[in-house]
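Fig. S4 source data, part A: sequence.
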Amino acid sequence: MKLKNNIGLILLSIVYFGCLFSDGFRVPIKLSYSSSFGYDSNVFRLSDLERNQKYDQDIAIIDSDTFDAPYINSRLGTKYAPKIFKKFKTEFNFSFSGNSYITIPDKSFLVINSGFGIKFAPYRWIKISHRYLPQYYLRNFRDKDYSIHDYYQTEFSSEGFVISFSNRIYKKNWFRIKYSRTNLYYNDNFTEFDIEKNSFEAKLYCKILEFDSNLSYMISIGNNPSYDQGYNSTIYDRSYTEHAYGVYAKKRIKKSNFINVVGLSSIIKNRIFLDRSEVDVFDPLHNGRQDIEYNFSIWVGNKINKKLSHEFKLKHRSKDVFSKYKINYYNGTGDVEEILVSDLREYRKFEVVYKITYNINLNVFR
């Protein structure tokens, strides 16, 4: 990865040596574990055109016989708040989470998160965090640098760094501003899709109709660093700008024994690729194209006791693509046909998830 500083390793080192030499570090660790059992109707985010193809034998565009799959998500998280400063609260967070797709093992992945925060006053925090996804299998594509007929697995790794500042506005209303840098680097066959993304986000937290709510806006600039690197596939500039709008609302239910929280969230992303007039070599698949992606979730949850809770969630995700261009497409039987870019890149999917969470305090330093 090109982000050389491993934030997670640095934070772990601070905790370890602090525990050895300071009583302020000998405080309980909060541990949480959750397991989610879900179903994904369109694991590879394929368009209706791709899913409805008649394939000769195997489905060449994916390493699977089906488009949907059940999965299990497991997450282990820790929260550790040593007394480093007399006047300020400090907090370390670490987590390991992963999705295991039961019928499509190649699609399984692991994510490692770490973070550190300093609290200067109520609602006033400075936080830094690091996220690392070692490998993620996307699907199969043709590598036109080698062959126009053979398919290869498309994988990428992702690493991100985030710094944020939050502060109170009035009473329990507060805001957070955040800068993040995320690098997505693809395997050797598809380095032409590498992206280095810089994002800026503003989020407002407030109470709306007795719902704990937040509203957010984020702008991201995705640069294509492998552009013009000497290969046929790198003559196209795949850079983009993306705007994201989010809303989140959660309400606690006090009079029910079966449901004590209900919530919903929605995120709309508008990705705008470079226009035809902005590039030296025109790419009909990307240039002059806009994607609008919709993410919507609704859930209910219940706290069984002080340590155990569970949640049921429904998720819907879709993408509309706006492009007036067509490309040549190899269909399921290997023939070439001309299709609209929008028909190839639009998709719909839904997920059903049941989640169980267990929390515990560990006094490992006493």
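Fig. S4 source data, part B ends here. The radius of gyration is 23 Å.
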